[in-house]
Every structure is written in C-alpha cells, then in structure tokens.
Design brief:
heterodimer, A: about 110 residues, alpha+beta, three-stranded antiparallel sheet, B: about 150 residues, seven-stranded antiparallel sheet, globular
Chain lengths: ~110, ~150
C-alpha cells in the first residue's frame, strides 16, 4: 500500500526482507551481540552485518559497544513512523466504512 | 529515547445496528473499502476487495482481469461481536500483524466499533518463552488474541 513519509518508506522497505525480519525476531527477546545473531541464521556473518547496517539506517535497531563486541537491540522509537502510518490508514478506512454503512437504507 | 507504543487503537460509533454493521464490515468489505492508492496493493487497478468471514478465510483485492493481491486472513470470527485478522497486505505472512475488531451494540440502532492493530512486538516474559523455542512469535500473538476474542 502507498506510503508518504521518507522515514516510513525506509523502515518498511527494510522490513521487506525475510532475513531482516528474522533478525528482528531474534532481537525481540533481548539485545544480542552480532555473533549470537549470526549463529541463529543460515547466512554468513558478513551478510548478517550488512542486514544489521540496513536495519540501523532505517532506525529499527540500535547498537552499543560492550568491550570488543557490538550489541544490537530493537529501537522502538524507529517504529514510530510505522505506527503513525497505520494510525492514519485506519482513520481513513473506518471513516469510509462509517460513511458507506450509514448511507445505506434501513432493512 | 521516546518510548513508542507499538499499538494502534481506533474507536468509531456507527449509526446502525450491530448485525448490519458487522455484516457490512466483513462480508460486504467490497462495498466500502476505499481502493485508493493508499489503501490498495494493486494501486489503481483493483476494482473490489473481499473478506471471507470464516476461520482461514481470505482477505484480498482483485482487478477486472482477475489478478488478486492478498491482504491477510481471518484467524477467528464471532458474528456479530468480533473478528481477528492476520494482516499482511502486499508482503508475506511472516511479518503479519494482528487486527482485532470488536462490535458492541449500544441500543438497537447504534454500534461501537473498536479496532486494535498490534503484533509488531511481544513483551516481557513471553518473549523469553518464545526464544526458548516453546512457541513462535506468531503462535503467541494468535493465542493472546484468540483468548481475548473468546473471553
């Protein structure tokens, strides 16, 4: 469905890849270092790093240094444009529903 | 960091009885869904949308020449009180979110419709259970909303 805001397009575009969604699933429970994420996925470590970079650019994950490791976590604030999109989407759809169903003749 | 609430809640009052409101919303989706570019996967080409109001039923849009795009599927339905939908318009079921739509009669000719869109995140102890392999994230979300719809 059509999207307007650049940030929303970025996050939703990035979420279009199933491997990146799998990474988000891995991170749902708790923050993880890259090696742990890679251990759960059937792709190479460099591929995982590339996916994490795209997720970070889209604002969906953030990372911090912990010793020599980078720990990744889901960035809830990055989902804000996604939520705002659906908020407006349902405003419009429900408004159309109300108009149409109330315009029908009783019976 | 601002804490984003990963949930959308909408409420609207419909000046019609609950049975008609539920029926038009579900089985007559094509009568009211706005097929503009913002609410269609097949932007500009779709001529109608449809919802099969039964467990496992499809929700989809279609063009005049028979192309279809799936928006999601019906997880559970309890006419005329509610419907739970797995929602993934234009992308795979893996990233599906959950729609729970409830209908409440306010008198004979007025219905309150509540829509809750969620499923982008699971919380707390259930997240750990999911990652221990006990269940998938989606199974958890389905279970939660199945219980809400039934209870």
């Amino acid at each position: 469905m059509g999207y307007q805001a650049d940030t929303t397009l970025s996050a939703l575009d990035v979420l279009g890849d199933p491997m990146r969604r799998r990474i988000l699933e891995v991170l749902l429970g708790r923050p993880r270092p890259v090696a742990e994420i890679a251990a759960e996925l059937p792709v190479s470590r460099p591929a995982v790093s590339r996916h994490l970079r795209l997720l970070k650019q889209a604002g969906l994950v953030s990372d911090t240094a912990q010793g020599t490791q980078r720990i990744y976590r889901i960035d809830r604030a990055g989902f804000a444009p996604v939520i705002a999109y659906w908020d407006q989407f349902w405003d419009e759809a429900l408004s159309a529903f109300k108009t149409r169903v109330e315009a029908r003749r009783d019976g | 960091m601002k804490d984003t609430d990963l949930i959308v809640r909408k409420e609207i009052v419909i000046e019609r009885g609950i049975d008609e409101t539920f029926r038009v919303f579900t089985e007559e989706l094509g009568e009211w869904w706005p097929l503009d570019a913002g609410h269609s996967v097949l932007e500009g080409d779709a001529v109608t949308a449809a919802l099969e109001a039964r467990t496992g039923g499809r929700i989809y849009e279609s063009t005049a020449d028979g192309r279809e795009a799936e928006w999601g599927s019906v997880v559970a339905v309890d006419p005329p009180h509610g419907i739970t939908i797995r929602w993934h318009p234009g992308y795979g079921r893996e990233l599906g979110t959950t729609l729970v739509v409830r209908f409440e009669a306010i008198g004979n000719a007025v219905t309150r419709l509540e829509l809750v869109h969620s499923g982008w995140e699971v919380h707390g102890s259930d997240a750990e259970r999911i990652h221990s392999g006990y269940t998938t994230g989606w199974d958890f979300v389905l279970g939660e909303f199945g219980r809400q719809l039934a209870g």
